[in-house]
Amino acid sequence: MNNDWEADIQTLLNNTRIAFLSTQGDKSPETSMCPYAVFQDDVVLHLSALAKHSKNIQQHTQVGLMICSPETPDKSPLALPRLSFTGHIETVPEAEQADYQKAYLQSIPDAEPLFSFPDFTLYRIQPLSVSWVGGFGKARKIPLETWKSLC
């Protein structure tokens, strides 16, 4: 197994700005795409209350999230590096908003105008489990302490 998996995770986080959020809908799981940032050991999302995933997380705060390398013509989609989380999602507390917003905008500067929209809210996912797949035969659970050290 490649010993550079920690560096590979950093590369993925540095080069990918979108994630796929899985929430529990009224009748079944639902998945949506959303930009993300990482601050401390939390995954940070800036979500509109108009989106279905925001309605879902008001009812069920357990979520899944996947960050995946973009597909390229020269690489099998089966071998794409990816990072998956399960965790608890919550609104970022008012006292911490400025720090989380700064971190989010460092990753997604295009989102700055959205912070003036009243229906957008900052959320954080506090991971309960983290899994890494770096390609064929390169899968591992990431202990939470290791995840924290990568952030």
Features:
151 residues, 4 helices, globular, Pnp Oxidase, Chain A
Describe the structure.
Helix content is 25%, strand content 39%. The longest helix is centred in the N-terminal third of the chain and has 11 residues, at 5-15. It has 151 residues and is of the alpha+beta class. It has a single domain (5-150), classed as Roll (Pnp Oxidase, Chain A). It starts with a helix and ends with a helix. It is globular. Strands 1, 2, 3, 4, 5, 6, 7 and 8 form an eight-stranded antiparallel β-sheet that branches.
Question: How is this structure best summarized?
Answer:
The protein has 4 helices and 8 strands. By secondary structure, it is of the alpha+beta class.
